[in-house]
Amino acid sequence: MSATENQNENENENDFEAGSRRERKRLETRNCISQAALQLTLENNGLQNVSPDEIAERAGVSARTFHNYFHSREAALGALPGDRARRVALAFSERPADEPFDVALAEAVVAEYTLGHEPGKESVRKLREIMANGSFSKEALRTVMDEEGARPHLLESMRQLEEQLTPVIAERLGLDPAQDLLPRIVAAAVNGAVRVATKYWLHEDVQAPYTALLRQAVRTAAALAQQPALPLGASLPENENP
Amino acid sequence: MSATENQNENENENDFEAGSRRERKRLETRNCISQAALQLTLENNGLQNVSPDEIAERAGVSARTFHNYFHSREAALGALPGDRARRVALAFSERPADEPFDVALAEAVVAEYTLGHEPGKESVRKLREIMANGSFSKEALRTVMDEEGARPHLLESMRQLEEQLTPVIAERLGLDPAQDLLPRIVAAAVNGAVRVATKYWLHEDVQAPYTALLRQAVRTAAALAQQPALPLGASLPENENP
DNA sequence: AAAAATAATTGCGCTGAGCGCAAGTTCGGG
DNA sequence: CCCGAACTTGCGCTCAGCGCAATTATTTTT
Question: Cys-Cys crosslink for B104: which of A55, A156, B95, B152, Cβ 3.0 to 4.6 Å?
């Protein structure tokens, strides 16, 4: 797991093709640090109980280097959802064009958020390892997500999904995000749906599998896309306040 | 603006009725601190350039007391959107029952987010003062919202809107939030719509007034409520990944 | 292949946010 | 009028985060 000893099981299969060797290594250590942050957070029941030094040590770098990549522990954790958001947007844009909008969106999300399936992308495999490696599960995740201090940053990083999704949704709908609010609203709704479904799954003890919950929620939110586009200039007929 | 000298223009009209005198004073200083944080943030173009001591001084309390109410500068700023969220939820639940769902929601939001209208609630009046008192406007707000460090906390506090809205939406729809995801999804979508509309209004220079933008966005998001309720147990017919 | 240029890592030391503690102050109830 | 509880304040400590400058690794140039 250290940045150096890791040179690298399956050298060619990395998350995002990197250009120069330097850049590759940079991404690798970056990811290493994030993973270390995640592990320690789960192990210690909360980011609060993890010092930057520990993270740095686990990742095999100096404390100073850690702060060189991320300006806070929270940012280190947040990099993971951020990356995932990028992958979801990519997956969505590569869905077959004849697929219904909501299905394409839902499956793109589900495919990435579901850790299972084939040993695909490297980071996913690692995350699954961490999860599978015993002990960590709903319970641990819950304590992390509920942590008062980390949550704002975590959610902000999950909100990357909205950012990444907006342009591809706009393209698929044939709308210009600079002219029409609809793509942004749909993206925001989908992002919210993912968050809500996850929270629901984590907190209420529900029988339905996470996958089904996610798919349902996203498809529901995606239905917004069938709204008529918003004419920004003109207000609706008459609805002024009394 | 100090906590002491402010004893209080229009003593009876306070945001939330307070029980004991002590509790009232507590809420008052709390609000004072938040307002001070907002003012200074706007004046100095970013929370980054404001020290806790300055906020405390402006609010007329000691630095230690400041940290006694809020454990970070960001939290102090975030209290304002949080309070506003509570007012919106209240306003929505008091809308006439025969009003269409989306209209009720949109108007509840617009009424609170629009600073104008009558000199209603005290905090709104103050905020308007701040805004009106020259210099601060879109531009200043933009620099605040775009600030890297404060944004996560700000957005998290705006997300209070979702939290507050969920139960009242569920009630109006006749659904149980513990059984059905739809109320949460609608609330999340509305929250996202507000955020998106605001961002759009702040960044693209658009001709439409903020009010119209907000109303449109919220009504669009609220349309989700007409989705058929989600049967959590059963998945849709067949949509497994290949 | 060596040397020069560029980029990444590291150690050191400083600033300042946030908090525990204990003393002082204000307020409500009997 | 006085007692107890809640609130405020000052002091001092810890540690996250960052600027700086030196060191090491990597790419490019000659």
Answer: B95
Give the pTM: 0.84
**Which nucleotide has the shortest C1'-to-CA distance from A28?**
C8
How many residues are present in chain B?
242
What pLDDT score does B134 carry?
A: 42
| Chain B residue numbers touching A191 (CB-CB < 8 A) | 192
Name which of A117, A193, A207 is nearest B233 (Cβ-Cβ): A207
Three-state DSSP class for residue A120: coil
Report which residue type is found at A134. G
Whether B138 and B202 have beta carbons less than 8 Å apart is answered as yes
- Predicted pLDDT of residue B112: 87
Q: How far is the CA of B65 from the C1' of D10 (A)?
A: 11
Q: Considering only CA atoms, which residue is closest to the C1' of nucleotide D11? A: B64
**What parts of chain A have a pLDDT lower than 50?**
1-16, 116-120, 133-135, 233-242
Tell if A71 CB is < 7 Å from nucleic strand D: yes
Find the residue in A nearest to B233 (Cα).
A208
User: What is the C-alpha separation between A206 and B180, in angstroms, rounded?
Assistant: 11
